[in-house]
Amino acid sequence: MKSRKTVVWLSTPAIMVVICSSLTVPPAPPNPSLPPSTTPKNLLNPSVSPINRRNLLSLLTLSTTQLIDFALNPISPPVATARGLFQMPPVRLTNRYFLVRAGESEFESFGVINTNPVAKTSVDSGLSEKGKKQIVRAAFELKEMGACENGCWIWPSITQRAYQTAEIIASVNGISRSFIVPEYSFLDARGLGAYEGKKLESVSEVYESDSISPTTKPPPINDGTPNESVKDVFVRVIQLMSILETQYSGDTVIIVSPDSDNLTILQAGLIGLDLRRHRELSFGPGEIRFVDTSSIPTYKQPASAVYKCLNPPNCN
């Protein structure tokens, strides 16, 4: 009886594993019909299982740690792990964040509501002269705060006024345009439906509805303008934070929104404030706010029974 060893080398960046299996092969009886160098497959010891090709390929997909575990305990399957969707309020933040509202737009200078995403890249959605001055001041304020001393990523909405804001911030702070990452949907201005084209003052009616329930939507309109509730925007900003907290680690990210509602709803979620009260965190055009969860003031519930929220910021 001869003993034969089959050696398989599995190479990974950190470790090379050798799997040896001893196969006992009885001497082959003479068979004049076969060439001298040919050994029939049925001569292998049937009590020893050969290496399965599928199992071998599976091994090649394992991580270094899993390979070691597999070698020590081949019966135990690897345990799958995955990061869930970003939770509000977060246990911790991997990055540091600055929230910036874009400067005044041309539409806003005319006192007109404009939230239709179809027009978000038009010239009229860009910064007004007053808006440009607001953002120059904001950019120097960020520089004084040392926001981009060690580099930063700027995430603006693709909306014209937000992207122009990002370009001014990058220029003043010496950041290459390659670090501007345009965001195409999660940071769109909140769609106000039938309020589209009305005077800016009428938006107060929307906030009155927000204070009753975050699921109330503005009246719809048939021109393509979405009518979004606070909860709709909340879902969008959670998706945005999920991307940022997964894509970056230990970085500085400047989020540039074309309107206030994206930022107030995001900040309310980060600090665990009842979403119906997001308006209390209102951002003015060109305003900057550093997200510091360790120094967020405690918001007291009103004495009245208007707000009944057991699980902020998710309240009905």
Automatic annotation (TrEMBL):
It comes from the Eukaryota. The keyword Nucleotidyltransferase does not apply. InterPro entries: His_Pase_superF_clade-1, His_PPase_superfam. SUPFAM superfamilies: Phosphoglycerate mutase-like. Pfam families: His_Phos_1 (PF00300). Residues 1-22 form the signal peptide. Keywords: Signal. PANTHER family: PHOSPHOGLYCERATE MUTASE FAMILY PROTEIN (PTHR47580). This is Histidine phosphatase. The lineage of its organism: Eukaryota, Viridiplantae, Streptophyta, Embryophyta, Tracheophyta.
